[in-house]
Amino acid sequence: MEEIILRIEELRLELNRLANCKLLSDPELIHVSQLLDEVLNQYHRMIQLRTTK
């Protein structure tokens, strides 16, 4: 769980950094945004599994 939280933070920081220097339509920015979405979805699924047990 700690690893996924660290990954979310890393991707969030990278996304913010890219957003400050690139257009929102930049492929690299879009890619990092999609990665962050995937990791956030994984985190959400993990939380749901913990609360249903």
Largest sheet features: none
| Arithmetic mean of pLDDT | 96
Helix content range: over 70%
Structural class: mainly alpha
Radius of gyration from CA coordinates = 13 Å
In terms of DSSP E residues, the strand content is: under 5%
Task: Provide a count of the helices.
Answer: 2
Shape verdict: elongated
The residue ranges in which pLDDT falls below 50 over 5 or more consecutive positions are none
Number of extended strands = 0
How does this structure look, described?
There is one protein chain. With 53 residues, the chain is an all-alpha fold. Helices cover 87% and strands 0% of the residues. It has two helices and no strands. It has helices at 2-21, 27-52. Helix 1 packs antiparallel against helix 2.
Short overview:
With 53 residues, the chain is mainly alpha-helical. It has 2 helices and no strands.
What distinguishing features does this structure have?
2 helices, single chain, 0% strand, 53 residues
Helix-strand blueprint:
Blueprint: H1 2-21, H2 27-52
Helix pairs in contact: 1-2
